[in-house]
Amino acid sequence: MARRSSSLLRPGLLIGLALLAVQFVAIVFAPWIAPFSPIEANPLDSLQPPNLVHWLGTDELGMDIFSRIVFATRVNLLIGFAAVALSLAIGVPVGVLVGYYRGLGGALVMRFFDFIQSFPVFVLGMALVAVLGQEIWSVVIVLCMLFVPMFARIVRAEVLSLRERPFIAAARCSGANDFAIMFRHILPNAMTPVIVQVSVSIGMAILLTAGLSFIGAGVRLPSPEWGLMVSSGAQQMILGIWWVALFPGLAIVFSVLSFALLSDEAQRLADTARRKEGAR
């Protein structure tokens, strides 16, 4: 009992959950937490350093940085969760099919994934933004195209190792068809590494969203987004105006850190479960 309680109180898990809880509070209660509008410019208050009125200062347009950071949590996490969810919905079934039906079709699908992943993410982002427009869902589509091959590869590798196990042979002997074998017997046993990868992918999505917005291929003004805020403040860093870029950058760090810590804990739990399964 003591060993189980100590495992639940690991510092990494507690810090990750605390940072994640802060983000969800910002998402839900943003209109009540933010003292100013995140998109309302006030040129008379431009580039004010942190003070009692504007706690984290203002940017070159006079918009309150703290309010924009709070509302940007909605945008960045929406993009991250939407991209990963869409990637799961596409990549997991494709990975199961390609892994179960080994043949020329599966090889062609994997080569197509190699072709997609060969594009630099920012080049792909700028190309799609030029076609689809500079909108939030354009960023989601870019990230989805990057994550679908990753999830498909993970699932395919698990399916290849599971499809010849004795319990699959038993399912065939009991009369189960291919669909039941793939999605009722194989897929539940192949989801552990996928669950671990989900947390990593959300953090990656937040970083990539910020990077795309930084180079002008992501979210556009006046929408609040962390990478866009860093981009607008980076030009003033050399002039000593540090607060415009620093605080959104810290928001990116803490958000990605929360998902990285949770991913480490999920990996640890998965390894523990596998050891117990092997001991049995």
UniProtKB/TrEMBL annotation:
<dbReference type="Pfam" id="PF00528">
    <property type="entry name" value="BPD_transp_1"/>
</dbReference>
<keyword id="KW-0472">Membrane</keyword>
<dbReference type="InterPro" id="IPR050366">
    <property type="entry name" value="BP-dependent_transpt_permease"/>
</dbReference>
<dbReference type="InterPro" id="IPR000515">
    <property type="entry name" value="MetI-like"/>
</dbReference>
<keyword id="KW-1133">Transmembrane helix</keyword>
<protein>
    <submittedName>
        <fullName>Peptide/nickel transport system permease protein</fullName>
    </submittedName>
</protein>
<feature type="transmembrane region" description="Helical">
    <location>
        <begin position="112"/>
        <end position="130"/>
    </location>
</feature>
<keyword id="KW-1003">Cell membrane</keyword>
<dbReference type="GO" id="GO:0005886">
    <property type="term" value="C:plasma membrane"/>
</dbReference>
<feature type="transmembrane region" description="Helical">
    <location>
        <begin position="194"/>
        <end position="217"/>
    </location>
</feature>
<keyword id="KW-0653">Protein transport</keyword>
<dbReference type="GO" id="GO:0055085">
    <property type="term" value="P:transmembrane transport"/>
</dbReference>
<keyword id="KW-0813">Transport</keyword>
<feature type="transmembrane region" description="Helical">
    <location>
        <begin position="237"/>
        <end position="262"/>
    </location>
</feature>
<keyword id="KW-0571">Peptide transport</keyword>
<dbReference type="InterPro" id="IPR035906">
    <property type="entry name" value="MetI-like_sf"/>
</dbReference>
<feature type="transmembrane region" description="Helical">
    <location>
        <begin position="12"/>
        <end position="34"/>
    </location>
</feature>
<keyword id="KW-0812">Transmembrane</keyword>
<dbReference type="GO" id="GO:0015833">
    <property type="term" value="P:peptide transport"/>
</dbReference>
<comment type="similarity">
    <text>Belongs to the binding-protein-dependent transport system permease family.</text>
</comment>
<feature type="transmembrane region" description="Helical">
    <location>
        <begin position="77"/>
        <end position="100"/>
    </location>
</feature>
<feature type="domain" description="ABC transmembrane type-1">
    <location>
        <begin position="73"/>
        <end position="263"/>
    </location>
</feature>
<dbReference type="GO" id="GO:0015031">
    <property type="term" value="P:protein transport"/>
</dbReference>
<feature type="transmembrane region" description="Helical">
    <location>
        <begin position="136"/>
        <end position="155"/>
    </location>
</feature>
